[in-house]
Write a structure and sequence with these properties.
By secondary structure, this protein is mostly beta strands. It has no helices and seven strands. It has a four-stranded antiparallel sheet with strand order 4-3-6-7, with no helix packed on it. A three-stranded antiparallel sheet has the order 1-2-5, with no helix packed on it.
């Protein structure tokens, strides 16, 4: 059987890069991406590993960290 991803987890590593974010997680999880005003932008379903998430330029809260995405 397939296990459902955990509700929400902190990312092991979050870094902004041109055009998005690099996220590394140690367990499968749901990862919310918020604007600074608290508005939910995306809810990511991530498997263990490193992922690139495309986002427009702006400042986001991901995994408890504030990150700035450039164009």
């Amino acid at each position: 059987s397939v296990d459902a991803p955990k509700q929400t987890a902190q990312a092991t590593h979050v870094s902004a890069t041109k055009g998005g974010l690099n996220l590394t997680v140690s367990d499968s999880c749901q990862m919310p991406v918020y604007l600074l005003d608290g508005a939910l932008v995306k809810m990511l379903s991530l498997e263990t590993g490193t992922h690139f998430v495309s986002l427009p330029q702006g400042r986001y809260v991901v995994g408890g960290q504030v990150v700035a995405v450039a164009r």
